[in-house]
Model the fold of this input.
Amino acid sequence: MNIKEADPGKLTIIPRDQHNVSRKSISEAALKVLYRLTSSGYRACLVGGGVRDLLLNRQPKDFDIATNATPEQLRALFKNSRIIGRRFRLVHIRFGREIIEVATFRSHVADSPRNELSSQGRILRDNTFGDIADDALRRDFTANALYYDIENYSILDYTQGLADIESRSLRLIGDPNTRYQEDPVRMLRAIRFAAKLDFKIEQESARAIFECGHLLHDIPPARLFDETLKLFHSGNASGVFALLRHYQLLQYLFPALDEILGKEPAEAMLDFIDQALVNTDIRINNDQHVSPAFIFAILLWPAVSQQATALESDQLKIIPALFQAGSDVMSRQVKHIAIPRRFSQMARDIWTAQPKFERTKGKQPNRLAAHPWFRAAYDFMCIQSMVGLVPVKLCQWWTNFQQSHQRSEKQHTQHEPRRKRRVRKRQAN
Ligand code: ATP
Ligand code: MG
Done:
């Protein structure tokens, strides 16, 4: 189906005095790129999440720019830039720690014979350039297809996106089934944005998720790793998790977990995951680091602990049982989501550490606390204690242990030369 027939892409221009997007809220780096492009004779607009979030009075995570300059022209114009991606070629322009992502206007894949589609209609490559109106229609949601025009500070709306933002509705542009077939990851993006922005997924866009979920099978595990992290690092992981379950998508990301939660009684494990995700959200929203290993350790724990319990009753001791169950569950999981080894290894360390927290005598606690994964394993144990899977006293014991440890370390370091002190600090982290 031709998307232009379904949606004529009629342009509405919202002049500067009728919207709230101000240059003051746009990063200096993004403004620099926009101005350099226009002064070099190109067309350039802010687009995507940056415009959407500013319209919603939210702080954008990053700024994306769309232009008619090609990746090569961008490379020539910005020394600090590099071309990335094959399926979708983009230019990253670096300003210190900030990266501005610049994409050349593209036409919608169905309109351009040179673009490659798989036999199931999935976009394999999307590098056919077009004009700004084409570019708007090939984007995913109407809320993500608004352009802030640096020439006159107006907003260009080709898809009635502003009305959807006002009614907090997440609507795919064009026919939902076709758009999910082109790129099934759009279903995960719908869930991420719905949870993050507190938007409702529009009825047809929502209905099609139930029909198209199975298409996630075709997505390369490396891309699913990236998307899964975005989902669970969004600061709204608990909302994301509820939506994944509601839309029956958990089975394509975490099949072992989905199976366990589908059977009775799953309440204790569900409580554990909810509690852990609430904690994750608090940390992320406080700008604290959450390791991907921790997230995978949480989501795979129900399967690991269930399997370890079965192995334990087969005469294996608990630590070897956890070790074996962890390896089995992880090797099945990485077929769906390509979890890099350093994270899968740390998740396994977190699991096998759990029984070790019961050893509170002698040198054992110091030994456990010296591991680089200790802090994550301790957080994991305390979350278990919050939902009654581990005695609350155990979490308290380890909290006290760390506090007294830190105190005595402080007293120590005050009398030591500077260099040594630094080394100690690093070890404590
Ligand atoms: P945020 O950066 O806050 O996560 P975003 O909307 O900016 O959200 P990005 O992944 O940065 O999301 O993508 C920028 C824009 O590119 C999107 O707003 C959308 O217009 C377009 N886009 C990204 N991914 C897709 C996709 N899979 N299909 C169609 N358009 C997409
Ligand atoms: Mg963005």
Q: What stands out?
A: Residues 48-49, 61-62, 64 surround magnesium ion (ligand 2) (CB under 6 Å). Strands lie at 12-14, 44-47, 64-67, 81-84, 90-95, 98-104, 146-149, 154-157, 169-170, 200-201. Residues 220-407 form a domain with the cca-adding enzyme, domain 2 fold (CATH 1.10.3090.10).
